[in-house]
TrEMBL record:
Annotated protein name in UniProt: Zinc finger BED domain-containing protein 1
InterPro entries: RNaseH-like_sf (IPR012337), ZnF_BED_domain_contain (IPR052035)
Keyword presence, Transcription: no
Location of the protein in the cell: Nucleus
Entry-linked PANTHER family: ZINC FINGER BED DOMAIN-CONTAINING PROTEIN 39 (PTHR46481:SF10), ZINC FINGER BED DOMAIN-CONTAINING PROTEIN 4 (PTHR46481)
TM region positions: none
Main localization category: nucleus
Taxonomic source organism: Schizaphis graminum (Green bug aphid)
Length: 307
């Protein structure tokens, strides 16, 4: 391929490329270590995750403040976990990374999710003066997920997801929707599918359906070339469902904003946790007399879980 694109270019061999990558890596490691040598305290954040190929990894990020009060952070570890995710195994991995980066006696705290294995690890490390900082955004994620699992929500969310799938899995239907939106003088927006592990995508899905509601209804109910009468009946979204979508989006928007603020990676956010959570619980999630059952159930579920 390179001979066709640039015949005069000599492609480096595998060994040369590997050597150059290793040299760049070593240079970056030395740079980060020199930065860490000049600070008294480093906070870590860690998470275990799974790739699309079902390989398990652990990522550890170091956070510290330099002399000019500027927040710096570096990914100091992303490595595959080939053993089981027990507390002992993960503890060995984290301690090994701390030693490798010469951070012994410098780690002030670790931010982590609410998984039992990582929580147990930090409890053990607390004996060495390392503070546990459970991720507020992850805790909020669990609260919202539990609320959305309530049947009154899950029923119309599933139906909304079915509508999205009907267009996502057929380019002909997507093209038909695009034409209808153009005829209606609406922006030619595409549907968004939700992800069960990310509630904000559920909100984005519902918001998008509300934006292109007229096009969705027209395409499903009137276009017999792409939707049979039986298919249209199965995908029918009654007026109450559309109202519920709007209500749920209004409930989720402030929480999405709070999550966005808490997840900022270039600003210190730990001082914002208490005021944000207090505002959510005692203002946004406060039950009012005119709240219907849908709103009351949501507010009650999230507040109880967070408490």
């Amino acid at each position: 391929l390179m001979n066709i694109m640039e015949p005069s270019y000599m492609v480096p061999c595998r060994k040369t490329i590997t050597t150059r990558i290793q040299a760049i890596y070593n240079k970056k490691v030395n740079y980060i270590k020199n930065k860490c040598m000049n600070v008294n305290s480093v906070a870590l954040s860690t998470d275990c995750w799974t790739s699309r190929t079902i390989d398990s990894y652990i990522t550890i990020t170091g956070h510290f403040i330099i002399d000019c009060w500027q927040l710096k952070y570096f990914n100091i570890c992303t490595q595959e976990i080939t053993h089981s995710h027990t507390s002992d195994n993960l503890l060995d991995t984290i301690q090994s990374v701390i030693s490798e980066w010469e951070l012994n006696n410098k780690v002030s705290g670790i931010s982590h999710d609410n998984a039992a294995n990582i929580t147990n690890i930090v409890k053990i490390m607390f004996l060495n003066g390392i503070i546990s900082n459970p991720c507020a955004a992850h805790t909020l994620q669990l609260c919202i997920k539990k609320a959305l699992d309530i049947q009154i929500f899950s029923t119309f969310i599933k139906q909304a997801s079915n509508i999205v799938s009907a267009f996502k899995h057929s380019y002909k239907r997507s093209y038909a929707l695009e034409n209808v939106l153009e005829q209606l003088g609406k922006p030619k927006l595409t549907v968004i599918q939700r992800c069960p592990t990310r509630w904000n995508l559920t909100m984005f899905m519902l918001e998008r359906l509300l934006e292109i509601r007229q096009g969705i209804v027209t395409t499903i109910m009137a276009d017999r070339m792409h939707f049979t009468r039986q298919q249209a009946q199965k995908l029918e979204f009654i007026e109450e469902d559309w109202d519920n979508c709007n209500i749920l989006c209004n409930l989720l928007k402030p929480i999405h904003l709070a999550t966005t603020v808490l997840c900022a990676d270039k600003k210190v956010t730990i001082s914002l946790i208490r005021p944000i959570i207090h505002s959510l619980i005692f203002k946004h999630l406060k039950i009012n007399e005119n709240d219907n059952d849908l709103v009351t159930n949501f507010k009650t579920s999230v507040s109880q879980k967070f408490s």
